[in-house]
């Protein structure tokens, strides 16, 4: 498949992030090999594009690692919620005891 430069520039971000389909990736790669201008564009794109912190978890297809990461986060949120509820309950009980004493 022969792509023109505009299409290649549209696909460069997907290609760079590893999200393009196999045929798109092959076509972009072939075009970059031939086209000096698009190679320059891609080089510039790589230099200027910020990489998100957790992007590797998503782009590498490592969903097991991602699921583990989310599970741990969920457990910590649960622990925080339980701590908040039990602290509130303690404060409420102490308030009740103080009211009854009077
Ligand atoms: Zn080109």
Task: Explain this structure.
- By secondary structure, the protein is an all-alpha fold.
- The protein is built from 5 helices and no strands.
- 81% of the residues lie in helices and 0% in strands.
- Bound molecules: zinc ion.
What's the layout of helices and strands?
Blueprint (H helix, E strand, L loop, with lengths): L4 H13 L4 H13 L1 H13 L6 H5 L3 H39 L1
Helix pairs in contact: 1-2, 1-3, 2-3
Bound molecules: zinc ion (ZN).
Salient structural properties:
single chain; 102 residues; mainly alpha; 5 helices; 81% helix; binds zinc ion
Q: DSSP strand (E) fraction?
A: under 5%
Averaging pLDDT over every residue, what do you get? 87
Bound molecules: zinc ion
Estimated radius of gyration: 27 Å
**Structural class of the secondary structure composition?**
mainly alpha
Helix count from the secondary structure assignment: 5
Largest sheet: none
- Unreliably modeled segments: none
Number of self-contained structural domains: 2
What's this model, at a glance?
The protein is an all-alpha fold.
């Amino acid at each position: 498949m022969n792509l023109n430069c505009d299409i290649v520039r549209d696909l460069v971000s997907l290609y760079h992030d590893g999200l393009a389909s196999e045929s798109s990736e092959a076509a972009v790669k072939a075009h970059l090999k031939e086209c000096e201008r698009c190679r320059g564009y891609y080089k510039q794109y790589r230099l200027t594009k910020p990489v998100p912190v957790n992007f590797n978890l998503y782009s590498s297809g490592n969903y097991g690692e991602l699921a583990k990461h989310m599970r741990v986060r969920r457990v910590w949120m649960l622990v925080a919620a339980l701590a908040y509820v039990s602290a509130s309950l303690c404060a409420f009980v102490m308030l009740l005891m103080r009211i009854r004493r009077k």
